[in-house]
Amino acid sequence: MISPKHILLSTLVFSCVAAGVSAQASTLSGLSGVSGFHSTASMYTQFIAEHLQKADVPGAIVGIWQSGRPFYLQAFGTANPAEKTAMRVRMNMPIGQLSTAFTVRAVLELAKADKIQLSAPVSRYVSGVPDGEHMTVADLAQMRSGLVDYTQQTAYLDAIKKNPEARLLPDQLLHYSFTHPLLFKPGSRFDYSSTNTILLGLIIEKVTGKPLSRVITEQVLQPNRLSDTTFSTSFADPFLQVRGYTRNNAAQTLQPVAWNPSQFWAAGAMTATASDLRNWARINANLTGFKHILAAYPQSSAPGQTKTSVQYRWGSFVNHGWVGNASRQAGFESIAIYTPKSKDTIVILLNSEAMDKGVPLAASLAQRLSRFISPHAIYQADGQP
């Protein structure tokens, strides 16, 4: 458990910000009774530390960047409790479903180069997809295919529980989805499914003749100078220094989780640093360069949301003015969101899963922080899967 006196201050810690911002400290949920902070940075630190301690999360990296103000980037706790390795802000961590946006961006780059047609049926590129002749590449990228999410299927969950380090191939992942009927007619509505992203990865490999990891590196990471972001192909990834943990409620202990990127591939095999995610969040929110190929496609309203609140747009959610994604997978949570209007960014990385009033802790923290730094655009933690 993290104790405030053991919080590890990182080398990249921020300076004081405007007194007018500090005066709003009481608006940050959970700190209304705290006064006398000398800076907003110290307020953030205490607020985050308290929530990590309460949730029994071993470690975290939190970054907040606001236009025209000093940034906040801090590491908390331990990256590997067994070895007592301190968490550091430059450490790479698995980013789970945030990986989807990188895969979709590679698709858009290839579509821009006329190597992929967004309006083409999926069957043109990948055979054996249920109703693939009526399902388009755009349907996959906008989560409108109707394919069930393989990660939610009992057979898949049982398989990875039985052998968590088994190397799974994309076709095996698809099999867990294809054995079930479509949820709806392709293109008729939205439903988030990692199966869509696996198919996009296969389409990328088909048209380029290259491994997906190489295409994402060449098409997305290198052009945008994201040198500390990687597509993992092995659970022994040399860049991964952080161990993930899950809580055994029966024994009231934290247990290490094997990191196996093959379980997610195109939909969740990437790792990144907080600083790279800060840059990526801004890049990801900007689709201006693809305007001519995307004009014919509307945004997809997320289930249970109005068209003006939460939408899905080409690999990312648009959530009350914030663009980005949140992820929760065994051993890790992450979120990276950016608001184009005020140019603010929030990145949160945890090496354990935790819930806060029914929602993942990373997303809950992002909501509370967004309420403080951008009160007119508050991220909603329950606004996406």
Automatic annotation (TrEMBL):
Gene3D superfamilies to which the protein is assigned, alphabetical: DD-peptidase/beta-lactamase superfamily
Signal peptide as annotated in the record: 1-25
Oxidoreductase as UniProt keyword: no
Keyword annotations: Signal
Occurrences of domain Beta-lactamase-related (ranges): 46-357
Source superkingdom: Bacteria
SUPFAM superfamilies xrefs: beta-lactamase/transpeptidase-like (SSF56601)
Pfam family, one: Beta-lactamase
Keyword Signal (UniProt): yes
Name by which UniProt lists this protein: Beta-lactamase family protein
Organism from which the protein derives: Acidithiobacillus concretivorus
